[in-house]
Design brief:
Length: about 550
């Protein structure tokens, strides 16, 4: 169904079998043969590839690679193949910051303006800890670059990205009041670490982590044009094949680390077995974040954590262009797993959680399934919800079954019941929604989006006299609004034309850009609008 397909596409955008080495500990884990079978069922020798490892009691017990690092030349993935690990890099940045704190060089409670005076226009209550737990309220680089017409088709290196972010003048929310995952905080935290240590961030990583752990094939890359020996190519799957999918934004702190399965495993080993002083840092990294309203978040400083089938797990995923990566620890069982792939799909998830199901099944405890909501309860949940400003979903009750559709569409699809007020979202793997009064939480893989219930937008409400060119001074962004055949469109710097639809008086929205709130002078002429969207809020655009 077309409307659901469009929504799914948008959500997925917001993001010779080469067994190199396989050491099987059949005494402790006879299931390693089943791990082989699972790995070979998910990844194929003539397709894009993956490297996977299992670490137990501080040692790599299983390691395997399969598939192709380069499809054009048939180069296989091996234990020496290098993959970017994207957001898994965040935990390395947090580790460095906490190490510097132990040395008295910084405090995670320090105001960021102490180190970044360029951000003097921001509120005074943003601290380094906010940068590392995604509660800072700063707009995200990818969405800002998208408005500028850079992302996803043009390139920016790390220094260009930092310079861009140091122009931020507004926040999405007061620091510590909300959790909003993004990359800006960690990029700025890396910049702070650079300024304290007075040397490039990649060099600091090498001196403090890579060299001591003998991660000799690991490096942080600040420019996508850098040649990395043995690096896997990035691909996206298409109907019946693949296309090259190059990375465009290259930043360190939030991402940027390139590594091999051998080196990645050494980092997992270090998490399991390291000196007490280091363990205290890892412990701080997975202390829950507590918001000002006392709500607890399952994200610490570069690490996530939750319970999976009764087992406590600590984890983080990464994805950039066609690369995906994942690291997961079950601390009580002294078990870790790492995986890296070069295709933008969920097969890495399938491997990690399939392996957990095989290896840790004796430890599972299953919560009893809760009954379905009544038809009357579902009617109360029915309505329009905001995924992000300018992007709305609708839930409907049809004969006692909960349905989903993109707002404004006539077509809908049923959502399978999981337990209680939780429903599977079957159109994206590892996705579900959990309903509350006045909102639902939308979980996509590791990401949770809080979607509040809103008044139904009035699509017939067309805001008049809005045409013209508008300019945001802070980021030097131009947006043009035109009217054609009675419809209103916004044109981005990339040239893409997107339909603007009515929401309310003086408010319109455009998927996937965001929500436009127009401001008029005393004579009723539109002089400006404030734009809010995914991970940014209230950017002022003045009419030229």
């Amino acid at each position: 169904m077309k409307s659901v397909t469009i929504v799914i596409t948008f959500l997925l955008i917001c993001y010779s079998n080469s067994k190199v080495y396989s050491q099987k500990n059949t005494t402790k884990f006879p299931e390693y043969g089943q791990i082989d079978s699972l790995f070979n069922s998910l990844f194929k020798a003539d397709k894009t590839g993956a490297s996977f490892a299992i670490i137990k009691d501080g040692k790599t017990q299983y390691q395997n690679s399969i598939g192709l690092a380069n499809l054009e030349h048939g180069i296989p993935v091996t234990k020496k193949t290098v993959f970017p690990i994207a957001s898994v890099s965040k935990q390395f940045t947090s580790f460095l910051a906490l190490s510097l704190e132990k040395e008295g060089k910084l405090s995670m409670k320090d105001n960021i303006k102490k180190y970044l005076p360029e951000l003097k226009m921001l509120p005074d209550n943003i601290c380094l800890e906010n940068l590392a737990n995604h509660t800072h309220g700063l707009p995200n680089i990818h969405e800002l670059a998208g408005l500028k017409g850079i992302f996803p088709n043009k390139a920016m290196n790390h220094r260009e990205i930092v310079a861009f972010l140091l122009k931020i003048r507004t926040v999405n929310f007061e620091a510590g009041t909300q959790y909003q995952y993004g990359n800006t905080g960690f990029i700025l935290l890396a910049e702070i670490i650079e300024r304290i240590e007075k040397k490039p961030f990649p060099e600091i990583l090498k001196e403090r982590i890579f060299a001591p752990l003998q991660m000799n094939n690991s490096a942080a890359i600040t420019d996508m044009t850098t040649i990395v020996p043995n690096k896997a190519y990035s691909y996206r799957s298409t109907n019946g094949g693949y296309k090259v999918l190059p990375a465009t934004l290259t930043a360190v702190g939030s991402a940027g680390i390139n590594t091999t399965i051998e080196d990645f495993s050494k980092w997992a080993q270090y998490f399991q077995k390291s000196p007490d002083a280091t363990q205290s840092i890892f412990q701080k990294m997975h202390v829950p974040t507590v918001l000002k309203n006392r709500r607890q978040i399952g994200y610490g400083l570069g690490l996530q954590f939750e319970t999976y089938k009764g087992i406590d797990i600590v984890f983080h995923g990464g994805g950039n262009a066609g690369y995906t990566s994942y690291i997961l620890h079950a601390p009580k069982q002294k078990l870790s797993m790492v995986i890296m792939t070069n295709t933008n799909n969920f097969l890495g998830f399938d491997m990690i959680y399939g392996a957990i199901d095989l290896l840790l099944k004796p430890y599972f405890t299953n919560a009893p399934k809760k009954s379905k909501p009544t038809k009357a309860t579902l009617k109360k949940f029915a309505g329009v919800y905001e995924f992000q400003p300018g992007n709305y979903f609708e839930l409907l009750e049809k004969n006692g079954v909960l349905h989903f559709r993109s707002f404004g569409s006539e077509e809908s699809a049923p959502l399978p019941h999981l337990t209680g007020t939780t429903y599977t979202f079957p159109f994206i793997p590892y996705s579900k929604i959990h309903l509350y009064d006045g909102k639902f939480d939308f979980r996509i893989a590791d990401f949770t989006y809080e979607c509040p219930k809103i008044e139904t937008p009035n699509l017939s409400k067309i805001t008049v006299n809005v045409g013209g060119t508008y300019f945001n001074d802070a980021f030097n962004i131009y947006l043009k609004i035109i009217i054609e055949d009675g419809k209103v469109y916004v044109i981005r710097e990339s040239g893409a034309k997107v339909l603007l639809q009515g929401k309310s008086e003086n408010c319109m929205f455009a998927q996937p850009i965001g929500e436009f709130n127009f401001h008029r002078d005393e004579l009723g002429a539109v002089k400006a609008f404030k734009l809010s969207g995914q991970n940014f809020k209230g950017l002022t655009f003045l009419k030229k």
